[in-house]
Please model this.
Amino acid sequence: MLVAPSILSADFGNLARDVEAICEAGCDLVHVDVMDGHFVPNLTIGPVVVSAVAKVATKPLDIHLMVENNNFFVDLFAPLKPEFISFHIEEEKHPHRLVQKIRSLGIRPAITLNPHTPPESVEFLLKEIEMVLLMSVNPGFGGQKFIPSVLEKVKRLKALIEKHNPTCLIEVDGGVGAKNIASLKEAGVNVVVAGSYVFGNKEGYKHAIESLKV
Ligand code: DX5
Ligand code: ZN
Model:
């Protein structure tokens, strides 16, 4: 299991310190939640702050766009050379075109699905993408409760991935912790995002990250 701590739950007054610490603690990716106050009812960080994160991060960035006008935001973040950029399928009229654009910028394209969006919505894009991000909470905030129906969705998506593009990864984001990591693994998840579980862990970041590496 690859582990991508979400810096949404970091201490923004000490962001560089926290990003360095999760990288040293053995995370695989640094998950960055970009919210625009329109697609979701919350507003986070733009390329100025994320470039400061990129400077100190020793692990690749996983940028999760929760925005209207994906095309504009891809242009803003592409110069930071993230490993992945994911955008929400619900907010994109031309996902195939945007996937091609992200790839042409040298970034691995990923597509995100809200809790209500069926896995079949990405079936004909699977050959073109590197990862599907399944939201297991409603996007916008950290610290929410895991929605259990996502487990069934992971299994349905896994079958589609095996048929169309077996190397495509499945990432789950929201309410992930020690309690559900085993069932996520069993369902076929490859990457987990964890915000409050990692940054709020009393036993430290290293313990938290290791407990998710099942
Ligand atoms: C929610 C974000 C998540 C969030 C996860 O919109 O996409 O990445 O920070 O936080 P936890 O792990 O606390 O549910
Ligand atoms: Zn996220």
About this structure: Residues 93 and 122 are 13 Å apart (CA to CA).
